[in-house]
Amino acid sequence: MLHQDWMRLALKQAQMAFEQGEVPIGAVLVHDGQLVAEAHNEKEQRNDPTAHAEILVIQRAAEVMDTWRLTDTNLYVTLEPCPMCAGAIVQSRIKKLIYGASDLKGGAIGSVMNVLDYKLWNHQVDILAGIMEDECALILKNFFKKLR
Amino acid sequence: MLHQDWMRLALKQAQMAFEQGEVPIGAVLVHDGQLVAEAHNEKEQRNDPTAHAEILVIQRAAEVMDTWRLTDTNLYVTLEPCPMCAGAIVQSRIKKLIYGASDLKGGAIGSVMNVLDYKLWNHQVDILAGIMEDECALILKNFFKKLR
């Protein structure tokens, strides 16, 4: 499968969030070309400030893989992660982060800060940005337009 | 209760982590002078890379308070938070962070980066560092000495 195909699955998760009244962000985690876990933002329905798509997909993947070390995995997420989620990506030793749209007001992969790019971390994450960027940005735009 | 008294409770949590073979870090969350939640690092036993003391105490407090907005709460933690946890503190709108020891290799409240200090965040967190610093550092030192 191509990056676009995995991102399409992450977008499906974002769509589920949208339908549940959550900010529409979705994520999938892939290991050896296989889908390990999927998640979307559930902050409002869970009343949990940490229930971002990335945190949930990491927790689910760690459970499935029975280890907290998500070595050699790819994380696909529709939006540039916030500092919390970027930190969780470092903590979980994810190999590669692929995201769609940039988050100019809160993104921690370069937009407002760069949490991944520190030589002191004992783990370096590969980054690929802009995969299906327009679709990932559009679903957010539509969500906030509907809110107003 | 004084800051030291709450930090002593966080240290008790760290001690529980120590006894369970976890890196000994503890946290408590306080609202209106009342203890809302306690937690310690459970990463190894849960096989969950996000199961840091701060994440767990925030999740528990949000459940107890039945809201993800932990407005007007104080978070006490024995060690300077990592980027993931610092990000979670911003996400959950915690009013004040009080920590013990600094983490020169991973701390995100100034040691290797400062996740809290961005004008773009829609929430600013007060910071008080160095409460019971020696005791908070010693338990970590003892843990890593025992590991070697």
Structural account:
2 copies of one chain form a homodimer. A 5-stranded mixed sheet of chain A has the order 2-1-3-4-5. The relative contact order of chain A is 0.17. The first copy, chain A, is built from 5 helices and 5 strands. In chain A, strand 1 and strand 2 form a beta hairpin. The first copy, chain A, is α/β, with parallel strands linked by helices. Chain A has a single domain, classed as Cytidine Deaminase, domain 2 (3-Layer(aba) Sandwich), CATH 3.40.140.10. Chain A is globular, with a radius of gyration of 14 Å. The interface between A and B is large, with 39 and 39 residues. Chains A, B: Residues 1-112 form the CMP/dCMP-type deaminase domain. Chains A, B: Its EC number is 3.5.4.33.
